[in-house]
Design brief:
By secondary structure, this protein is an alpha/beta fold. The protein contains 13 helices and 18 strands. It has helices at 3-8, 14-21, 29-46, 138-155, 170-174, 179-182, 203-218, 230-240, 254-263, 275-282, 297-306, 319-328, 333-349; strands at residues 26-27, 53-56, 63-66, 70-73, 77-83, 97-104, 111-115, 118-119, 121-122, 161-167, 184-185, 187-188, 196-197, 223-227, 247-249, 268-274, 355-361, 367-370. The strands form 6 sheets. A 5-stranded mixed β-sheet has the order 4-5-6-10-7. Strands 15-14-16-17-18 form a 5-stranded mixed β-sheet, sandwiched between helices. It is elongated.
């Protein structure tokens, strides 16, 4: 498939954007599982695998064909595999082989989903699937079910199937994702809402943040920590003794944490991160990535002045240098930044009943600033 074809398959408004960026979109795991199931079910009914296999995206987009990479059948079951192409997105599942094995189900049973090797099982409440269910998300399930119904109608079959989805090396790949923390054990999740991976949309990370909050709420946690990285997580554990499923791998997406907590509040949020990143939050930035927001030395000087300290930082090269200068002058810039970052977070949370405190650290993980939990009231 060409990049032009893939771009046409994206939802309305995306093709032009992707053309401008020059980035090639790809397919979600859910789209690959759907294509593999469609091919396997067709083979179970007809004895022949369609290759390529055509699927219709769950948007207003046209149908598209994916190549069947591996297949097998013995009359009572059929298996087809599709290699996932995530396009130019740095997706951990890029080039993973997604397999679907289909077997006859009991009459009237509809579709029963099973987690094969490399697909995880839900073990904690709070996710959009019940505990014990295979980690095949609701949208891919609906996507697969619709395609099975089309094949069944075309061949006069009832469509009662057991559908087993597996992903080669999925258990190993899952260790690089949030799945173990979310209580999805044994492998990856089958994800996807549109069928298309938009490069660098970071949708999977943001979705993981939301699911992390859901799991923490379901577990009854009243205190969670949004952390910018592994060092920040270690500080959160050392300072507060928080369990693993109360730690949110926020990364650069402070806005994603705050906006979701606004709708799904937890009593206390501690934000832990590097001084420079959190100085950007203190300036009102909700995306802390270096390519999308910058440390403002002028704003740091303003924060110091509003705290009652005169401090010229305009000739500093980095936020860290500004912090060191402030420390040498006896100015608690870290504490002032933490307090301002908490205020900015509260402004996003609005009236949500969430108390916020902030801990700023240096690159070694030493705490260089903090504020006590505060609310808007």
């Amino acid at each position: 498939m060409t990049s032009e074809q893939a771009a046409e398959a994206t939802p309305s408004g995306r093709p032009a954007q992707l053309e401008r960026t020059g980035l090639r979109p790809g397919w979600t795991t859910g789209a690959c599982a759907t294509a593999a199931t469609t091919a396997a079910y067709t083979a179970l009914l007809t004895g022949e695998f369609p290759d390529p296999v055509t699927i219709t995206l769950p948007t207003a987009s046209p149908s598209f064909a994916l190549t069947v990479e591996t297949l097998a059948a013995d009359g009572s079951w059929a298996m087809a595999g599709i290699t996932k192409d995530a396009g130019d997105d740095p997706d951990v599942t890029h080039l993973a082989l997604v397999r679907s094995t289909v077997r006859r189900g009991a009459p009237g049973s509809g579709i029963t989903f099973v987690a094969g090797p490399g697909v995880g099982t839900v073990t904690k409440p709070g996710l959009p699937l019940a505990v014990g269910e295979p980690a095949i998300n609701p949208m891919p399930r609906a996507f697969i079910t619709a395609h099975v119904a089309e094949v069944a109608a075309a061949h006069g079959d009832a469509g009662d199937l057991v559908v087993e989805i597996s992903i080669d090396h999925g258990e190993e790949l899952a260790r690089k994702t949030w799945n173990p923390r979310l209580g999805i054990l044994g492998g990856l999740s089958v994800l996807g809402t549109t069928g298309v991976v938009v490069p660098y949309s970071c949708s999977a990370w943001i979705d993981s943040i939301r699911r992390g909050i859901d799991v923490a709420r379901a577990a009854g946690h009243t205190h969670v920590a949004g952390c910018t990285g592994s060092t920040s997580e270690k500080v959160a554990v050392a300072e507060y003794g928080l369990p693993d499923d109360a730690l949110l791998d926020m990364g650069d997406f402070a806005g994603a944490v705050l906006k979701y907590l606004r709708r799904h509040p937890i009593e206390r949020l501690t934000i832990v991160g590097g001084f420079a990143k959190l100085s950007k939050l203190a300036a009102g930035h909700l995306d802390l990535h270096s390519g999308r927001s910058q440390v403002s030395l002028t704003h740091l000087g303003t924060i110091a002045a509003e705290g009652g300290f005169e401090l010229d930082l305009t000739d500093c090269n980095t936020g860290l240098e500004a912090l060191h200068r402030a420390q040498a002058a006896g100015v608690p810039l870290g504490d002032l930044v933490a307090a301002r970052a908490a205020d900015e977070a509260l402004a996003v949370l609005r009236e949500a009943p969430v108390a916020v405190d902030v801990v700023c650290i240096d690159r070694a993980g030493a705490i260089v600033g903090r504020c006590e939990p505060r609310t808007l009231s």
